[in-house]
Amino acid sequence: MALTALALNCTLSPAPAESSTELLAQQVLDALAEYDVTGSMVRVVDHDVRPGVALDMGEGDAWPGIREQIMAADIFVLATPTWLGQHSSVCQRVLERLDAELSEKDEQRRLRTYGKVAVVVVVGNEDGAHHISAICFQALNDVGFSIPASGVTYWNGEAMHGTDYKDLPQTPETVASTTRTVAANAAHLAGLLAENLYPATGQD
């Protein structure tokens, strides 16, 4: 079965600026491609995603179009930089907009995200990757996404230094191997869910 993936790059830097977050997110998409998963990426800051917790915040809101791409994909890659040990404000806005999915059910009262897998990407030259992935995992699972085993790949540079992931001469093997594992597990779980969705529970 053909699977698709969408990565949201939550960098603070608009295009065409280089983005370490985009680089690692693209490496996840490239690894997924080895499992015949077709991927694409959106740099969220380039779009007018309004604050709020509704599906559509009115005229000019770019979220409905981005949401349509999320809902069309089997695998959702949420990628964020680290600032002050936290996920980016852009990532937080994405999580807040996803809150609206709690009201979106299919005819069997299941969240429409139940058949979708989510993984997380974190980069930064300071600590925070475990903290950030924990927050993102909980939020994504709350709104119906399934998190595979080893569902995050990350890179933290040495504290108090200014080297960015995109400036490394090559990808560290530990990061590359983790990325491959994330892709393998995400593709495996997405394939299982595509064939056999969670049962209906009847809960509102």
UniProtKB/TrEMBL annotation:
Pfam families: FMN_red
Membrane-crossing residue ranges in chain numbering: none
Residue ranges of every copy of the NADPH-dependent FMN reductase-like domain listed in the record: 6-145
InterPro entries named in the record: Flavoprotein-like_sf, FMN_Rdtase-like_dom
Taxonomic superkingdom: Bacteria
Name of this chain's protein: NAD(P)H-dependent oxidoreductase
